[in-house]
Amino acid sequence: MSGTRRRLTGLRHGAAATALGAVVLAGCTAQPSRHTTAPEGSITTIRSTDPAAVPGMTTVTRLQRDERHRVFTGYPDVPGAPELTKALAAAVDEEVAPFDSATARTAPLPAGDVPELNVQWSLTAASGDVVGVRLVTSRFLGSTGGESRRTLWYDDATRTVHPSADLVNGPHGLAALAQRVREHVGSQANPARVRPDPRLFSSMGFNSEGDLVVEFSDYAIAPGTAGRVAVVLDGAEFGPLLSDFGRRARQAALAYRPKLALRRGASGSPSPTDLPSRAPNLGPQSATPLPSVDCRRAKCVALTFDDGPGPYTGRLLDTLAAHGARATFFVVGGNAVVHRDLLRRQVAGGHEIGNHTQNHRDLGRMPALQVNMDVQGTQQIVRGAVGRAPRLLRPPYGSTNGTVGRVAASLGLVQATWNVDVHDETTGDPRAIADRTVSSARPGAVILLHDTRRPTVEAVPRILNRLARKGYRFVTVSQLMSGLHVPPGGIFGGHANGR
Fold first, then answer.
1. Model-level pTM?
2. Among 427, 421, 356, 354, CA closest to 391
3. For residue range 361-388, what is the model confidence (pLDDT) as tens digits?
């Protein structure tokens, strides 16, 4: 989180807190935490659960990119909870559809900016028979934008997905909650806009002390310049208002050692062919040595896969191993934290892991502090999983500038772009993806692909076979860079005409 929060009412600390609520307005929204406790003092931080509490969970990722807009969304697919997955997909569609419509009829933005929509997620609970998922949607449309926040709650006892408003007991409970929030928002927000409307109370959860955190989307009850608005109520204020499900949700959110136990178990999970196989906790010393390849003489090509790991990455690793091929995986932290086992498999297979940021935001529009946070998040996740941090950074959409370069340099990272883009996200035909890749390949090429897409992964055997027959060797980006001096912060995007 960047910026400092202004405390507008009696902000509470620890066990000595009074029964007063607290409201916080921040210049930018706190990023969803990947830890089970919030940073000390951040009482408006909604407690989140490590995805490791949900064995077999995977992620659903969507990418759209062209000259008129950029979209990156993600949400979890929880085994045994297909109703939740369907509801999350619908919630994401409700964000993407109007954005697509708006960008289809607007003129291009000045200075080469491209409208962007990004949906991040975190688990607010995953214990017993309750799951909570928080979605944060960021929009950039040039002169307009902002963030919206929504938390959905799943009750396996009834196999029902609840909006956040269902944490309180019916219309009377919501009316009483609205009254308490109005009493605490103060003059910086507009109390008159706090109405007992379930759509207004779209995101509620609990902080690490068990207090109820009510957060609002931008512009909902305050000017957009206020940023995130969140009101904290302690047990004396919200306790009598909770529904039966709300009390169970709070208990699940505060579980010291979360353990999800859904009645259907893993029966609702993806098919075994789509799931990554589990690998032991392999450190960097377990990596398969890279074969010696002199790309000054050999026909080398670097296959790179962005946005994962995902549900098809395990199958891709099997394919690469069968062909003795190496690749580079530019991972998104929000997916990598779910699939730490796949990171270990990538290293053990002799592949290279690069950093594709924590949230897949356009770094070219972000200040240095936010760029650093977005990059550092993935550095830490990869280091924790495999014992070493990436040495390559691929800015999402290839969007970079001097600020990004300086942050990369400070972290010892080379920016790795590409010189062949087959736009595999635009087709569901594996043959078409293979044809585009093979026809575009040339010695020294860095080819952009995405392992979050089934058609792309299904195309890889054809790509490997056809390029191998043409005499190509499949190497990592760092192998392709061998012999070149690319300083930290510099950019390498492959060789224009071979070596």
1. 0.88
2. 354
3. 999 999 999 999 999 999 999 999 999 9
Q: What is the 3-state secondary structure (H, E, C) of 192-243?
A: HHCCCCCCCCCEEEECCCCCEEEEECCCCCCCHHHCEEEEEECHHHHHHHEC
List the structure tokens of 309: 């790991």
HSE toward the beta carbon, residue 24, CA cutoff 13 A: 22
Look-up: residue for tokens 């099997």?
Answer: 318
Give the pLDDT confidence of 438-483 residue by residue, as tens digits.
Answer: 999 999 999 999 999 999 999 999 999 999 999 999 999 999 999 8
Q: Is 171 exposed, middle or buried (0-12, 13-18, 19+ CB in 10 A)?
A: exposed
In sequence order, the 6+-apart residues with CB closer than 8 A to the CB of 192 are none
Helix (H) or strand (E) holding 117: strand 116-127
- Distance of alpha carbon 301 from alpha carbon 308, whole angstroms: 20
Q: Is 271 exposed, middle or buried (0-12, 13-18, 19+ CB in 10 A)?
A: exposed
Give me 184's structure tokens. Answer: 């605490």
Q: The tokens of 26 are what?
A: 């921040």
What positions carry a catalytic annotation? 306, 450
